[in-house]
Amino acid sequence: MQYFPMFLKLEGRPCLVVGGGDVAARKVSLLLRAGGKVTVIAPSLCESLQSRLNAGDIKVQQKKFEAADIGDHAVIIAATDDKSINRTISELAQQKNIPVNVVDQPELCSFIVPSIIDRSPVQVAVSTGGASPVLARLLRARLETMIPSAYGKLASLMEEFRGKVRQHVKDPDKRRHFWETVVQGPIAEMVFSGKEEAAREAMHTAIDQGEHASSSRGEVYLVGAGPGDPDLLTFRALRLLQQADVIVYDRLVSEEILELARRDADLVYVGKERDRHTLPQEDINQMLARIAKKGKRVLRLKGGDPFIFGRGGEEIETLMQAGVPFQIVPGITAAAGAASYGGIPLTHRDYAQSVLFVTGHLKDGSMNLNWKALVQPNQTVVVYMGLLGAKLLCGKLIEHGMRPDMPIALVQQATTPQQKVFIGTLRTMPGIIEQNIIKPPTLIIVGEVVQLHNKLAWFAPTR
Ligand code: SAH
């Protein structure tokens, strides 16, 4: 071990930063976050240090550094671009055993500043011993995605209940088990999804049950998987994928995304919409509640966003009635994915001030839509589930007054390597669909904005 890791208490203690540039300003911010009393020595200040000074956050001596300035600070950071001054500061500080850091000159440092993941009171520090700050930052970014932003709140909650838990759960092994259940179960998830009061109540209940508390309570995560590209998952979706015991998914969820699930999770396929083997929605609703009640963490994974043509509302209604705890994680809906990856902005100052999402699902061979609302000017219409009814759609739009040469796009398998964008007009699109082999899922975009595809298309799938 090249360096001994430790966390230094700086609250109320004098800290010195030499240098007045942006790098110095970043170090000052860090020291202030730790409660240090910061003095800056520099002949001139960058804007952000000047505003710190104006706000009374720091003291400043506007001058060059001199030996006497070393004083008895708790910590010193040198961030000047003058190497000889940096060296002097380092030597003087080390003579007095004051921890000193010289930015970008590891040989002059008696301590180094790690990359920090701050979920106060939880802190994770990453260091490569100065070998590669870029690597440390990369690692930090990875950890940031894995540690929920409300982790600090969870730690505070645990601190709040520590004494009480110790009183009620006397056996140390059982106590450890109790806390493990809290951090990995519904209580933690309540905190992460902003339901702190509910988490507190659940803590009280769990404590009352004490050593007899059931080891785990089931719950359901209703998660949007986005349009296909696994990179478009949210941090939360990824974290829950890696902790769920059972994953219930359907046809829209890509394999790459399923691969991100915990290795030993049970994967349950609930069928294709137009498939004979489809599990009726009511059965899915009941199934989620049933598995969760067995104490499992069930992740219901849906394409796009669960609340946009996703029947997410029905699923949680059943959970509500069954008293099963759940949370909902939004996803990038197909319209947003197809628009971005297809180079078709859904709104645009010159072409569209509003956007309408509709379903083109056929019922008994017809589409039950408010056609008058669809043909309004300066509006983009996005049609989900519209491939089978595309011809009917184009005809109806013309019939209700949309000009026949209105541009329309059909985006196949948006955001995936199989993405294809077909561009036409209301008049030509039915022919285009007939002449091409088009693979679902597809999304239809109607409106002037579709012209922009020619200028803005950027995503070129490689496969
Ligand atoms: N909840 C989903 C929509 C489910 S309805 C969401 O928010 O995206 C299913 C329809 O979504 C499909 O018929 C298709 O119109 C559209 N869709 C989903 N993923 C798509 C994709 N990758 N490319 C194009 N359309 C997609």
Task: Summarize it.
The protein is an alpha/beta fold and 463 residues long.
- How many domain regions? 4
**CATH C-level category of the largest domain:** Alpha Beta
- Treating each run of at least 4 consecutive H or I residues as one helix, how many helices? 17
Shape: globular
How far apart, in Å, are the first and last alpha carbons? 46 Å
Mean pLDDT: 92
* CATH T-level topology of the largest domain: Methyltransferase, Cobalt-precorrin-4 Transmethylase, Domain 2
CATH architecture of the largest domain: 2-Layer Sandwich
Distinct small molecules bound, one entry per kind? S-adenosyl-L-homocysteine
What's the count of strands?
A: 17
For the largest beta-sheet, the strand count, sense and barrel status come to: 5 strands, parallel
Poorly predicted parts: none
The portion of residues assigned to helices is 25-40%
The side-by-side strand order for the widest beta sheet comes to 3-2-1-4-5
DSSP strand content: 15-25%
What is the CA-based Rg, rounded? 29 Å
* CATH homology group of the largest domain: Tetrapyrrole methylase, C-terminal domain
Structural class by helix and strand composition: alpha/beta
Describe this protein's structure:
There is one protein chain. 36% of the residues lie in helices and 18% in strands. The protein starts with 13 loop residues before the first strand and ends in a 7-residue tail after the last helix. The protein has helices spanning 22-33, 47-54, 83-95, 133-146, 151-168, 172-184, 186-192, 196-209, 235-241, 255-258, 281-293, 312-322, 334-342, 371-374, 390-399, 429-435, 453-456; strands at 14-18, 37-41, 59-61, 75-78, 100-102, 115-119, 122-126, 219-224, 246-249, 266-269, 297-302, 326-329, 354-359, 379-384, 407-412, 420-425, 442-446. It has a 5-stranded parallel β-sheet with strand order 3-2-1-4-5, sandwiched between helices. The protein has a 5-stranded parallel β-sheet with strand order 10-9-11-8-12, sandwiched between helices. By secondary structure, it is α/β, with parallel strands linked by helices. It has 17 helices and 17 strands. It is globular and about 85 Å long. It has 4 domains: 14-113, Rossmann fold (3-Layer(aba) Sandwich); 151-212; 219-332, Cobalt-precorrin-4 Transmethylase, domain 1 (3-Layer(aba) Sandwich), CATH 3.40.1010.10; 335-456, Methyltransferase, Cobalt-precorrin-4 Transmethylase, Domain 2, CATH 3.30.950. The structure holds S-adenosyl-L-homocysteine.
